[in-house]
Amino acid sequence: MSMQKTDLQFVTDVVRAAATLMDRTGGFEVRDKGARENIVTSSDLAVQHWLTEQLRLRFPDIGFLCEEEDLSDIQGHEAVWVIDPIDGTANYARGNENCCISIALVESGEPVLGVVYSPWRDELYTAEKGKGAFLNGKPIHVSARPFEEGILFTALAVYRKDLALTCSAIIHDLYMECNDIRRNGSAALELCHLASGFAELYFEIRLMPWDYAAAGLILTEAGGTLLSLDGKDPSPFKPSLVIGANCHASARRVLDTVRKHLPALPY
Question: In terms of pTM, does the model score above 0.85?
Answer without folding.
Answer: yes
